[in-house]
Design goal:
It is built from 3 helices and 10 strands; from the N terminus they run αββαβββαβββββ. By secondary structure, it is of the alpha+beta class. The protein has 2 domains: about 110 residues, no CATH class; about 60 residues, no CATH class. The longest helix is centred in the N-terminal third of the chain and has 47 residues. The chain is rod-shaped. The N and C termini lie far apart (about 75 Å). The relative contact order is 0.09.
């Protein structure tokens, strides 16, 4: 009888030890998350030059194994805006994977979506291509009209991560690539 009682006590100690270990790992995970996330936000914000009242990152749980491996599997990004190539993009959302936690700070893959207003795009085309254009939308299609050139057709498209402006006027010049 004493033998059964001894096994029962040993089993309860084992269960208690396993539960205590799980609780300790969860607490350590959350403490590391709270310690590292502000630094990660700062690094991503600095690398992408994000603007806005709030740059938020969310990373999947658990954080501890990712911290031990030195990089985050994936993070979600949400910011008010960012600027690049002289243009200001708004309503920024996206994701990054393979985000390094230690120097050098590396992001393996980045996928961002943002909005560029017509006026920002018109200014960008004028600065980069020296073309004065007017942009509008009709039935979901982007309409581009070149000022003073009724017979000019201008196409704006994305190719390989680059925004390309093509002109079919009498003196089209070469298409200029705009930074993405």
């Amino acid at each position: 009888m004493a033998s059964r009682h001894g096994r029962g006590v040993a089993r309860s100690w084992a269960v208690t030890l396993v539960l205590a270990t799980l609780v300790a790992m969860t607490v350590a995970d959350r403490l590391l998350y709270r310690a590292y996330v502000p630094a990660i936000v700062e690094r991503v914000d600095g690398a992408l030059a994000l603007d806005g009242s709030e740059v938020t990152l969310s990373t999947p749980y658990p954080f501890l194994p990712q911290w031990m491996s030195g990089s985050l599997r994936s993070i979600s990004i949400d910011a008010d805006s960012f600027s690049t190539g002289g243009a200001r993009f708004v309503d920024v959302t996206g994701s990054a994977s393979g985000v390094g936690l230690h120097e050098p700070f590396v992001i393996d893959a980045l996928d961002l979506g943002a909005t560029l207003t017509f006026s920002e795009l018109e200014d960008l085309i004028d600065r980069r291509c020296h073309l004065s254009v007017s942009l509008s939308e009709s039935d979901g299609a982007l309409l581009v009209q070149r000022a003073g050139a009724a017979d000019t057709e201008i196409k704006l498209r994305a190719r390989g991560g680059v925004l390309v402006l093509e002109s079919s006027s009498a003196d089209p010049g070469s298409p200029d690539a705009l930074p993405d």
